[in-house]
Every structure is written in structure tokens, then in C-alpha cells.
Amino acid sequence: MARPRYRLTKETAGVRLDAWADDEEELLRHAAIGTLAHGLGRAPRGEAVHWHAIAPWPDDLRDRLTIVVSDALYRLYLRGEATVEVLSSPDRGYLGVVPLPPSRSLEAEVQTVAVRSLAVNRAGRLRATLMLVPAD
Fold this sequence. Notes:
Layout: E1 6-11, E2 14-21, H1 24-40, E3 50-54, H2 61-79, E4 81-88, E5 93-99, E6 110-120, E7 126-134
Helix pairs in contact: 1-2
């Protein structure tokens, strides 16, 4: 598994997350891990202990990014699980998660996720920019 490729940048309205990858599945993973790195103060690590299906699975990559990151945040806030892997098939996505240690606390809470842009460069690599809006 490649090291996640993302960058977090503070902006007036929240935090911008730029993620890039060679394929869709990798982009989804980098976006989810980058979002949780913002919430936890560092990227979650480990081998997936549980797998959770995401359904319905949208056809559009922009919608898939939104649902993967939103589901990763749901699992973090309400289930105490950190997403460490994302798998994608034509009809369903899967999040691989690890339980958070009881001593782990949140450094930031994200209320809204919005995909600002999604592009393919000349080399065929994918790049996405998401806006992570903090909770009030």
C-alpha cells in the first residue's frame, strides 16, 4: 500500500484537502485518510480489522469522494473507528477500519465536506480538492 498523498491547508472557511493518486481507489483512500488526519492530528495507521460496505455506490467519482469521506467521518465520530483502507468495485465501495484507542481524542471536527474540483492531469493522474468545513 502506497503512502497516502494529500496536503491540508488552512483557509478562512475551513481546511482545504488536496489529494492525488494514480487511480480512483487510491484517490478515495487518500481523501479519507487526509480528512481523518485533520480530525485526529495525524493520519490513522494499521491494518483494517473490519470492513464496511458503502451502498448505494454512486456512478460519479465526485459523489463517491463525498460519500467515502462522509462515511469515514461518521465511523470516526459515532463508532470510534478510523478508516485506513478503501476498496472500490463497480457496484460497491468498502471502508477498512481500525478501532481508535480509548485515549485518542479529536483535534478538529468536520461538519461539512464539499468537493471543490476533480481533474485528470496530462500523465493520467487524478487530483481532487475538498473543503473541510469545521463544526461550529
